[in-house]
Predict the structure of Major facilitator superfamily MFS_1.
Amino acid sequence: MGGIITTKNREVYKYLNYNIKMNLLNGITFSIGYNMIMPFVGIFAIKLGANNYEVSLINSLPALMALIGILPATIFINRAKNVFKFAYVLEYITRSFYLLVALVPFMSKFRPEAVVLFVGLLNLPAIVAGMCWQSFMSDLIPEEFRGKVFADRNIWTGVLGTAAVFITGILLDRIKFPYGYQIMFFIAFLFGILDAYYYSKFHYVSHKKEASASILDSLKTMMQSRKFIYFSLASFIFTFTWMMAWPIFTIYKVDDLHANNMWMSISTIVGSVGSIITYKWWANLADRKGNGIALSISTLLISTIPALWAKVTSLYVGAVIDFFGGMATAGYTMLSLNWLLELLPDHKEKMNYIAIYTIVTQFAAFLSPIAGTWFYEIVGYETFMYVTTVLRVLSSVLLFAVALYKPEKTVLSKGGV
């Protein structure tokens, strides 16, 4: 599996600009569809009768599906003759689950359980398609262009995704339940099909396939790639401490602050605006300080969010904190990909490294919301938020340590140190 970028000639730049355009269109259509359904799935499930643990499963079950599928998919990818076609077919399958969620109200029984199941299952093809996309981007977008390319993509996806959330939130509160949800989720499905179409239009050329290393061989090699190992372990810990509060925010906003769909959309919108205005700042900081230091700064800022939420009794105050949260999270969501691409090894090992990193972080994503909900029900809201803050700060310190770590030698030809 190989990319089109070989030399800096006119033809390469023509295809580079084309792929940047397709990447932008893919991101925009994905963001619109995603933001018409995912910010509202939790409240949709609650309206259908979901309890606290079922809400937490909306966050954790997708990660479990990813854990089940990553290794078999990676083995298949390493053996497949046309990985690119496999990836965009998976993208079409992923978006079809939006339609299934829209059809849930027609079921006579097990409606909240069906929402949880469909949201979980869609992540199985989505995570594999995402792994392939990461690998394709490392081939198609040279390292010196990635900061600007991904910052521009994030800005446009943020702006249009924000508009989608705003419009969806207004309509959901004005259209009788559950018809509003079904209409919006069906439109999200249509944008999802467009997203998959633009994914399929990348100009990606597979050269003569190299002999792929097995997962076991990559694990042996990885034992010498200390910085990648430390990055993966620190990412596991941060993901766990970060995601354990996700279902609690939804539960608290709906049950205690009585947020409706409009307020849920406002929470997403202000966070998106905070992200949009800081993407380029994070990209510039990464150019000056490196991906690792910039990402670690963002995680330290993210660490303060639960403590800020601990005493909140007004949705207006919560919106201000969500705006700050968007500013902080923008750095992590953009730079975690950049740092991963920076640490990837030579070509034949690349997909295996992405798979192992994804397994590590998805394992944390599966455990964390369930553990967070359990801990929240034991200690209560305020104590939970303060403890979560402390745990996030400690995990942020670990990422700083990884960023500052200087390996004695380079083990692989590119990254993997």
Observations:
- The mean pLDDT is 88.
- The chain has 17 helices and no strands.
